[in-house]
Amino acid sequence: MKVLGIESSCDECAAAVVEDGKKILSNVVATQIPFHAAYAGVVPEIASRKHTEWIYTVVKEALDKAGLDPGGVEGVAVSSRPGLLGSLIVGLSFAKAFAWAGNIPFIAVDHMLAHLYASRLKAGTAGETDPPAYPFLGLLVSGGHSIICRADDFDDITILGAAIDDAAGEAFDKVARHYGFGYPGGAVIDRLAQSGDPDAFRFPVPSLHKGGRRYDVSYSGLKNAVINQLEQFRIRPSRGGETEKADIAASFQKTAVEILLRGLFNAAEDTGLASVVAGGGVAANSYLRARLAERKDLRCFFPPPDLCGDNGAMIAGIGGRFLERGDRSPLSATASARVTEFKKKYP
Ligand code: KG4
Ligand code: ZN
């Protein structure tokens, strides 16, 4: 089944065609980064307007690259939650109209579930490692969410822990914004950190786990400590040069990753699950990948970097699995800013 997937939850306007929930036939991502960079963050109104301007062209390009005309599409999937409401509504409305016009099945899917599914997609290239079988631990880290979960199937996850305040990607973005490193912050900090000393600054790791919240994560303390360090540089202007910038980036990144890994390793220990699948923009982080590779007792799977960030292929992929099973969403389906269906459970 050839499924068109549409993704417009934040600042990437994306569409893809995936066959049988697995094989990527096309994957087009039009990023709005240059339009938000001047504000060092996503401006929701600009995002919605750009999606409205671009969505037709992006979908058309995805169909062209897949060698399909609209009549060749057998199902439509769209990201309808969580995300920026105005942005989600653009993709959702376009997807519904496309499905109605073609009289083809339609499904609205959860963006975070799709991030986890990204690991199961193939671009048709040989020599890839297959992702682990279910069940496994999921590490879902994006600009809006940090989730440690148990995945029993593509549509069956149990959230073990989550961010109690800022998400991991949000902390990267906010630190980068305060230091003027550039936008979006995650990739910039990852790059800067390559030449920095991760032990130059000692930043706090929250002690949530002592209170029994063994899988939750918190980033507001770290974010504030790193931002406060900037004030120290301002007081002593002799400091704060290029070396300090790289050191700040490396020290922040190290602590940010340790916070995530602490929760994840606790979950691995308590559940006995030895496979980990990562997803979301922060899963592209090189330090996170390197640290997880050190754990020889865990099998860790990362999607390729272009499938970590927002893309239409993950939506078309998981959408295809739902549609093949006979699941359908009504054409009255609406968007939601939040994750709606996963209940948090502690074992
Ligand atoms: O999944 P995503 O593309 O969009 C959301 O669903 O939010 O994630 C975007 C987030 C941003 O916060 C961005 O700074 C972060 O992923 N990110 C990174 C890296 N690349 C992107 N964070 C850390 N290291 C990276 N290399
Ligand atoms: Zn995302």
| SSE pattern | EEEHHEHEHEEEHHHHEHEHH
CATH hierarchy: architecture of the largest domain = 2-Layer Sandwich
Question: CATH homologous superfamily of the largest domain, by name?
Answer: ATPase, nucleotide binding domain
Bound molecules: 5'-O-[(R)-(carboxyoxy)(hydroxy)phosphoryl]adenosine, zinc ion
Radius of gyration: 20 Å
Q: Tell me roughly what share of residues is in helical segments.
A: 40-55%
User: Largest sheet, if any?
Assistant: 5 strands, mixed
Strand order of the largest sheet: 3-2-1-4-5
* Total beta-strand segments: 10
- Strand % is 15-25%
| Low-pLDDT ranges | none
The tally of structural domains comes to 2
What structural category arises from helix and sheet content?
Answer: alpha/beta
Report the CATH C-level class of the largest domain.
Alpha Beta
Average pLDDT score: 92
| Form type | globular
Report on this model:
The chain is an alpha/beta fold and 347 residues long. It folds into 2 domains: 2-123 and 307-339, Nucleotidyltransferase, domain 5, CATH 3.30.420.40; 136-303, ATPase, nucleotide binding domain (Nucleotidyltransferase, domain 5), CATH 3.30.420. It has 11 helices and 10 strands. It has helices at 33-36, 44-66, 85-102, 111-117, 168-179, 185-193, 220-235, 242-271, 286-293, 305-308, 312-324, and strands at residues 2-7, 12-19, 23-31, 75-81, 106-110, 136-141, 146-153, 156-162, 275-279, 299-301. The strands form 2 sheets. A 5-stranded mixed β-sheet has the order 3-2-1-4-5, with helices on both faces. A 5-stranded mixed β-sheet has the order 8-7-6-9-10, sandwiched between helices. Helix 3 links the parallel strand 4 (75-81) and strand 5 (106-110). Helix 4 packs across helix 11 (312-324). The longest helix has 30 residues, at 242-271. The protein is globular, with a radius of gyration of 20 Å. The model has no long low-confidence stretch (mean pLDDT 92). The protein binds 5'-O-[(R)-(carboxyoxy)(hydroxy)phosphoryl]adenosine (KG4) and zinc ion. 5'-O-[(R)-(carboxyoxy)(hydroxy)phosphoryl]adenosine binds next to helix 5 and helix 6.
